[in-house]
Amino acid sequence: MLLETVTKVPLVMRNGDDDRRPCHSSHIKVRSAYYNLQDQKFESYREDVVKLALDVLYPGQNEADIRTEFIADGSFNRVIAITSQHDSDDPSQSSKCRLVYVLRVPLDFERATYMSYEAGILKYVAKHLNYPVPGVVCFDSTSLNALGMPYMIQTYVDGIQLGTLWDELNREQRKSATRALTQLLLDMRQVKSDRIGAIGEAQSLQCSAVIEQFPLNAGRTNTSRPEPAKPQTTLQWFREMCQRRKQTQTEVEDSDLASEPLLVLDPEGNQYMPEIEIWDGLARSIEALHEKGYLPDTAEFCLFHGDLHGGNILGKIVNETTVQITGVIDWDFAAFGPDTLLYSSAAGMIRGMEEEGECSTILQEMMGPAYKKLSYGESFLVSRLFSILRKGIHEPGVLACAKECMKDFESKGRFHSCDLLSMPYVYDSEEGVFIN
């Protein structure tokens, strides 16, 4: 039913000034480019959602046929369910049973510039990973549509968030879920690249994505297109990225220009520049990690999710001893990086669990001897340093902890086990996400 419906939908893609495939609509509504969806209740624009559905999903049907339901507000998007009473032979079924489409609307206009990247990521992941992920039906990063706001419509992925499901699981089911999660990571490790970088934006829903350099700003809301990533060793990438961040910050300081992506907010809300010296300290740590064998030149680069936790993994209970992963969502931060990231991600997911010991045994059995070596200590620090180099320093706690690590290493010749090592995720307040 789902696939049959999707294939009948005309693909509408409009990104910025690109109007090559416009959405022909008699319902175009104009809103301010500075809207903030968090200030608006869903009921205030429910009718606009219905009109949008008629334009791009259900042409020829009537407004009375369309069903809409508010699901949740995420960090970046408002999520709304759209279905039609004609999608099921039994209109009395619950909306969950009949759900076909998911509408994602950015909470603010700035985030809409990221949509083409989200489309590229989802297309790439669906092609290379054998797990259900949301399919992109259409998106429009402008406001020239019935909604009057940017939007993306995705296919629905069935399942219950594993974080919600976990409390219902018995001991054997939790072990089964751990095996399924481990297999997911192993499958992601098989999606490889010869370069580290972000999955590029989709110029159309049919084109292939490219691997691009990580942008130096906090997100991808700037207008300049990143350069394609180049084949490198792990050490070469760490060295170069550290130098790029230092050079960019130096240029800003020398020119007395305030560049928001380089600023940090202190607890009082004041903005300031992280010290140039922190990048020198990170550079020395990178060399030390390489000498110790934690940044090997032979490391492979593989796909990682970037925000893998129980809220983004969907599953279902099969029987008294088995849990199945039914899908993985929210791939916004997916990219290619050292396989160390997958090992530390696995360790982070089980940390603090009641069955942590048993789950750790499962991880070691399935991931091999490398799991124990690459999940803790200096290898775990590699993952944290990767996050800092990729995202930059936009959080005072990250800056303070990085300083502590560098100071302790330089005075004692070893890395201090501070919060940067022990936290499964580091929170980036400007991005509003956990980076891992």
From TrEMBL:
Domain Aminoglycoside phosphotransferase: 100-338
Classification via Gene3D superfamilies: 3.90.1200.10
Domain of life: Eukaryota
Matches recorded under InterPro entries: AGP_Transferase, Aminoglycoside_PTrfase, Kinase-like_dom_sf
SUPFAM superfamilies associated with the record: Protein kinase-like (PK-like) (SSF56112)
PANTHER family tied to this protein: AMINOGLYCOSIDE PHOSPHOTRANSFERASE DOMAIN-CONTAINING PROTEIN, AMINOGLYCOSIDE PHOSPHOTRANSFERASE-RELATED-RELATED
Record's protein name: Aminoglycoside phosphotransferase domain-containing protein
UniProt source species: Lophiostoma macrostomum CBS 122681
